[in-house]
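re the bet — no i am not wrong, look at it urself. input seq straight from the record:
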Amino acid sequence: MQADWIAVDWGTSRLRAWAMGPDGPLAQAASDKGMNGLAPEAFEPALLELVAPWLAPDRPMPVVACGMVGARQGWIEAPYLEVPCAPAAPSGAIAAPARDPRLRVRILPGLCQQAPADVMRGEETQIAGLLAGEPGFAGLVCLPGTHTKWVTLDGGRVTGFRTFMTGELFALLAQNSVLRHSLGGTGWDEASFLAALEETRAHPARLSAALFSIRAQSLLSGLTPPEARARLSGLLIGAELAGIEEADAPPGRIAVIGADGASAPYLAALRHAGHDPVVLDTAAATLAGLSAAHNALEAQET
């Protein structure tokens, strides 16, 4: 196998790499050596552990990386580009200080916004992947996760974005609040989710009171753990959607980029609200974005 270049998605807890040929991935590998567990000098050895078999002995291998590898605590900081701007712009890529002559590593920048203050790293490459397939896409992009991003796209540029800590709030409330006594297991009740979604979409200011009602209902009316879990998710996502709708988001299409588990409640919520979102898988969007960035970098250097 002879790779042309290597694509890398380096997050907080995981490292993923693909050996890329002219028609797409030839091989892939992953490890748990994410940014959180590495000192700056440990990034190159962690990468070599995965990609050494793909390297050519007689030329430096182009490597394009995105994610937390470019954070201040990462291999080398790739400064944020301020919106409005194109996502994963090659002009902001930073060369990593690789010592092995077989490596030529460039790290893509994240995006920032001054008012309201916000940042992202990694998601911009997924957005670039969406635009690689649909260059004319205009509207909102939802990227579900621990910290869900809602991004406005227009004319091939990110014009603004907001981050909602919905996933982290769900975990904190489910594990460390009084609600932990009412939630358990992994069950789900769709009717409870949709009812709660409508409740906080209509009255987001009542979110805190609605949250405590989960505990009260479990004590007084036999709310089951699957119903409670779904209700908690619906209340939080409903408040999130209310925030997006209140922001006078521009008309246009909606895309959801995420893994199946994280995306499922958002897709249910959006469809319940009358939308027909475009759906992309995280890995596919990331790889498409890295490929677009690689092509732009190569064109920039020739």
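see?? The radius of gyration is 21 Å. told u. also The helical segments are 43-51, 123-133, 166-176, 190-202, 207-220, 225-246, 260-272, 282-301. so pay up
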